[in-house]
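Appendix B. Worked example

We walk through a single record from start to finish. Start with the input: the chain for Delta-1-pyrroline-5-carboxylate synthase, Lonchura striata, length 800.
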Amino acid sequence: MLCRAALSPLVRSPGWCFVSPPHAIAAISRLYFPCHNQRLRNESIRCWSNIPFITVPLSRAHGKSFAHRSELKHAKRIVVKLGSAVVTRGDECGLALGRLASIVEQVSMLQNQGREMMIVTSGAVAFGKQRLRHEILLSQSVRQALHSGQSQLKDVAIPVLEARACAAAGQSGLMALYEAMFTQYSICAAQILVTNLDFHDEQKRRNLNGTLHELLRMNIVPIINTNDAVVPPPEPNSDLQGVISVKDNDSLAARLAVEMKTDLLIVLSDVEGLFDNPPGSDDAKLIDIFYPGDQQSVTFGTKSRVGMGGMEAKVKAALWALQGGTSVVIANGTHPKISGHVITDIVEGKKVGTFFSEVKPAGPTVEQQAEMARAGGRTLAALQPEQRAEIIYRLADLLTDQREEILLANKKDLEEAENKGRLALPLLKRLSLSTSKLNSLAIGLRQIAASSQDSVGRVIRRTRIAKDLDLEQVTVPIGVLLVIFESRPDCLPQVSALAIASGNGLLLKGGKEAAHSNQILHHLTQEALSIHGVRDAVQLVNTREEVEDLCRLDKLIDLIIPRGSSQLVRNIQKASKGIPVMGHSEGICHVYVDTDASVEKVTRIIRDSKCEYPAACNALETLLIHRDLLRTPLFDQIIDMLRVEQVKIHAGPKFASYLTFSPSEVKSLRTEYGDLECCIEVVDSVQEAVEHIHKYGSSHTDVIITENEKTAEFFLQHVDSACVFWNASTRFSDGYRFGLGAEVGISTSRIHARGPVGIEGLLTTKWLLRGDNHVVSDFSEHGSMKYLHESLPLPQRNAN
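Next comes the structure step. The output line below is what the pipeline stores for this chain.
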């Protein structure tokens, strides 16, 4: 075993001190470390740099690997194995410097969080090959120039370079590069070269173990590599009983991880992870979680473009490490879009690469659930409209028939939420179910069933392109919907009914605060679906899946619909990778009181808009008052009513300027309070009210109260929101109240669906062309056919 420590100074000081024990200095006679004129203490030295210092709970008893990705954030001791394909350039001569610098930055960040990082690296052969090729070219060029006496050189042939010689030439340069990079983050690095004998000889094993522990204690990052300059060729089938031989850096990393009782081994290669078929083949799918015993179902491809091992070697090493109590993730370290954060993403528990786990979940994975939902949705769409309606009617009956069981489950959720004290009062109200809520749900579901008879497959356009060539545009389901909702179990049957009516597959991810309620409501939904054999069309995600990971399943999910707080919606919009998100991030709804407003209507509409359900997204948040109404009896009535209802008032800047003693001035005119609070602001005209709404609103729902029809029409035509009302409460912005039966949400998008989204918003279209031996060449300038483009009458819609 050879050990070379490359130590960058943490603190510039004239003092030096000697470091023990002797086995920590192997191949160097003395190892010095700068410090403040004192011996290094036993405590770990924390390095400060330009990377944020973050404290996380890291301690855990070693001996059993992590069962779930979400637990990886607790890993303290981590080995990062860098494959040859990660470290080297595409031409295999030289190092990928940008990629390597990014990896060093991530390792430094984790080291400065208090973790113990180790690197098992390749690259010495590639770096040495670059150096030797350069030397050979230079030497041959000089000789050629001397012999020919001419400055023009002929092409120089490069001999085949022996790998061990390349390794010998490249080791020092590789380590010098690591040393320079880690110095940028005030991190020290130490090189250790090992061979198989260092693990088989008991004394050498103890020395290696002691050296590594001493380096970690001093907050130094060990960089380990096989000593390729002297290592013999690997022998086939040379594994000892229960011990993996060090044939390549995969087996070295696994052996090292187990020897050092490491929490996590990250293996970076040039593929995304483990696939069920060779990567690149049509049927290849990335395996998210790999379990011992699954290797029989996997086909291994060829090894990477460089390096000793292929994927089979990586899997063997990973399973051996897993058996020794170390969690393993195999991921891509070369992809330009993810390599800059792949290591930190893995440690944060994000779905990157293939995670090896000994704990197999009882149910299907979320990927399998999405595939089941797609297959079930296609079967659902193929049913007759009457059959889909029958399923929804059955679900409505179950909501009332199983009322006691539903309310009992909901009571458990409420008790747990109250005991933990983690939900605010508005969220507790959303979580609560009641007999009246269930009855309203059942009524809404029956409305959906009645209105869904001709939703899927409805012809919305017919065109005769030419003789015997007819084109139709028909409605079809979007595909697989992912609906993420918080604290609202009543959302589950509503959304399920809309998905069933529109023939879509559905993935549901509810908040854990409503787990018991969601479980029984989903069970009843599947019971209703079973009457026509489409039980799998609606899936409830119960795994410990992070929402951000669900938003990355762009090959399995066609549309994401968030139902919850504005923060939830914003997070999902930010996390979604290639999947459209339908919804609104905020519900900043306005009511404008015009000079011609009716006294009787004003207080009723404002009270209902703000106080009927203040936590709703369609509740009033900003009240705009025409300036001429200030200091009038109508204005006094509005203020008195809000005080009686215990609504806290915030004054807008203009409103505050009119008052001697004003309420607290609003911090922002773009505030969604979601409680018994609102902002009051003054405007000079309906035009200014419209401008205010466009500047500070969220394009959700806005209202004018006036008896002047001309003013009202101006407001209705010029306010650019999803819902614009005249003399009606903002609370009417709702799918059930619109007669849609229910809604999956309210969309403020400007494409596809807008406003309360019912069945129609969950449909898209496809084109059907029926011809008879038609080809485009017949319609050319000298062809025999002409385009007609005649509009044809639509088929009669179902009267029911």
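Two observations about the output. Residues 590-743 form a domain with the Aldehyde Dehydrogenase; Chain A, domain 2 fold (CATH 3.40.309.10). The chain has a mean pLDDT of 83.
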